[in-house]
Amino acid sequence: MAEIIPAINVETFEDIRGRIKKIETLTEWVHIDVADGTLTPNTIWHNASDLLGIATPLKIEVHLMLGDIDARYQEWLLPNVARLVVHLEASKDSSSLIDKIKEAGKEVVIGIMPETHWEKTKPFWGEADGILLLSVPPGYAGQKMHDNTIEKIKGLHEACPSCILEVDGGVHADTIKNLMEAGASRFAAASAIWKEENIENAIGKLKNF
């Protein structure tokens, strides 16, 4: 069964709070996108301190699409944040960044853009807790998956069978089977969940494709 993590990509913290409440009994994790307009063409919610005011049983994974991440990661080392996704393209010293985040007691996943070759993740296979392959240009939810995604997953999975591969972008009922067969096991899904009237059924459909 696929591990489905509902992804939240919105402009306001009130929207984040509302969506979290809708899925608290349906899943274990939530994926929150954060963007300040440096790695993305748009800006969405990215105020770390807001999370201090939210109480939820969900484990929070924060996808940091931010510039100067080597310094700014510290803002997100919050008690209710369990995992940080940091982009290889935004860090000057990813190995050191991974070490610092893990020393703080958090899981850390290395994220790569659609145009970044999977081989660039090799130095971190034994360090990071997973690799996130962003399969669409960063920023907006609801985009079509990049054509190279399946081949990237296959190549990475064959080279590192023990690596946990997470896909973010373009995940829906028509793509998840191929993504899982290629070697991915964790999926951040936004539009496939939030555009459906019945959220519980949408999550179930993805888990049992």
Which secondary structure elements does this structure contain, and how are they paired or packed?
Elements (H helix, E strand, L loop, with lengths): L2 E6 L4 H11 L5 E7 L23 E7 L3 H4 L8 E7 L6 H10 L3 E6 L18 E4 L14 H11 L5 E4 L7 H7 L3 E4 L1 H4 L4 H9 L2
Parallel strand pairs: 1-2, 1-8, 2-3, 3-4, 4-5, 5-6, 6-7, 7-8
Could you describe the 3D structure shown?
With 209 residues, the chain is α/β, with parallel strands linked by helices. It has a single domain (3-207), classed as Aldolase class I (TIM Barrel). Helices cover 27% and strands 22% of the residues. It is built from seven helices and eight strands. The chain has an eight-stranded parallel beta barrel, surrounded by five helices. The longest helix has 11 residues, at 13-23. The protein is globular, with a radius of gyration of 16 Å. The N and C termini lie close together (9 Å). The model has no long low-confidence stretch (mean pLDDT 94).
